[in-house]
Amino acid sequence: MFGEIQNYFFVSEFQSGGLAHDHGLLWVQNAHQFAISSNESIEKYVDKYSTTNQTSQKTNRTNLLISISSNEIHYNIFSIR
Fold first, then answer.
1. pLDDT tens digits for 58-70?
2. SS3 2
3. Whole-model pTM?
């Protein structure tokens, strides 16, 4: 999907509410490189494989920040490579 994977790193964490999730890094052979590849080519590559969701402009940003910071507490359980 991304290309040939040369190396990887993943860590599993749990939020304070108990929701498990992973964070990971992939080293992809011949991937675009910051300060070498153009910003446009990097953006095109990232946009091809990722999506985001922006909150509504009507959302009270202060209440959102308070909610996130009080609920998004992570606990690192283990790492794999």
1. 556 666 666 666 6
2. coil
3. 0.47
